[in-house]
Write a structure and sequence with these properties.
alpha+beta, five-stranded antiparallel β-sheet, five-stranded mixed β-sheet, 7 helices, 36% helix, Teneurin-like YD-shell domain-containing protein
Length: 330
């Protein structure tokens, strides 16, 4: 394994599992080293296989290394150090920890509010104690403000699992639709206007469509996933596909500004597309997510999609007089 491959392996493990320690292998002697990180993902300790401390790292708030020379490899917030320049490579741009600024402007168009977005060189909203810049695009929010580090990792794991399901999907209509959904969601903080809001939802809702994107309830997602004996991020991937499918439909003619379809038939069709997406994601991830059960036949899967869509239609329309429920009943 090359040094570069070793570094990439470390970063993948840190990003995917948020472990406090991972194993690195050097190319020369295959020496085992354990890399320990703090709550921001910064490497603070390296130990050997006998638990001896090999290296300890201390940082200033904006990432300047205090107690030893910088070396190539993972460092501040898990990003790659460049020993030759003293910079951190944060995937979209290079960052200088000595001045706490990026060296190039943010490639994403700024929001008009708040005004701090117009400083195109800022790092982590000028609050490195609370926020990190993991390099993604969708905006992660919590009630009252931006996601903290823990929330950002949760949102990232949800989206990355949906992306993994896309990569596993065979070519076809489902993959094309999921590709459009993921393109709309984007990656963290790209300023595309799509927001994943982590919040507490009522009535056993795991996710809901919003004007800016979607709401997701991590607590309920984790509880339901535990009952299904699957990981929360796998269940959430299907929810992102489901709500994202609704979002795509809401952009089409026939939907009003509250995302309500024009007729009862269109409501049923949008639910069928949404549950079909959830089922397709569950199928490629080989999980039971309520709409897909591993080993079920295509006919059984279609029946499960129909029943789920019908239940959603009835929950929304029974006893109600509105145009979005008119002219059709499943």
């Amino acid at each position: 394994m090359s040094n570069f491959q070793g570094i990439r392996a470390i970063l993948r493990l840190m990003a995917a599992t948020a472990l406090y320690s991972v194993v690195a292998f050097t190319a020369s002697a295959q020496t085992v080293r354990y890399v320990h990180t703090d709550g921001l993902g910064s490497v603070v300790l390296v130990t050997d296989n006998n638990r001896n401390i090999v290296e300890r790292s201390e940082y200033e708030p904006y990432g300047n290394l205090l107690n030893h020379p910088i070396s190539d490899g993972p460092g501040y917030t898990g990003h790659v150090n460049d020993a030759a320049t003293g910079l951190n490579y944060m995937q979209q741009r290079y960052y200088d920890p000595q001045i706490g600024k990026f060296l190039s402007v943010d490639p994403v168009t700024p929001y008009s509010k708040p005004g701090k977005n117009f400083n195109r060189y800022n790092y982590a909203a000028n609050n490195p104690y609370l926020f990190v810049d993991p390099d993604g695009r969708y905006e992660c929010t919590r009630k009252g403000g931006t996601c903290n580090v823990h929330d950002a990792k949760i949102a990232e794991s949800y989206v990355s699992t949906a992306q993994r399901s896309y990569q596993k999907m065979a070519e076809g209509a489902a993959k094309d639709r999921l590709g459009k959904i993921l393109g709309m969601v984007g990656t963290a903080n790209d300023g595309n206007g799509f927001s994943i809001n982590l919040t507490n939802l009522s009535d056993d809702h795991l996710g809901e469509l919003t004007a800016k994107g979607m709401d997701l309830d991590p607590s309920q997602i984790s509880a339901v996933a535990s009952g299904l004996n699957i990981s929360a991020k796998m269940l959430a991937a299907g929810i992102i596909g489901h709500e994202g499918s609704h979002k795509l439909d809401s952009m089409q003619p026939g939907f009003n500004r509250n995302f309500y379809p024009a007729t009862g038939l269109e409501r049923m069709l949008t639910e069928l597309r949404a549950y079909g997406m959830t089922s397709a994601i569950g199928n490629v991830l080989r999980i039971n997510n309520g709409v897909n059960i591993p080993g079920m036949s295509l006919q059984e899967r279609e029946q499960r999609i129909w029943e789920s869509a019908k239940q959603s239609w009835e929950s929304a329309c029974n006893g109600k007089q509105s145009s979005s429920c008119s002219g059709y009943k499943p």
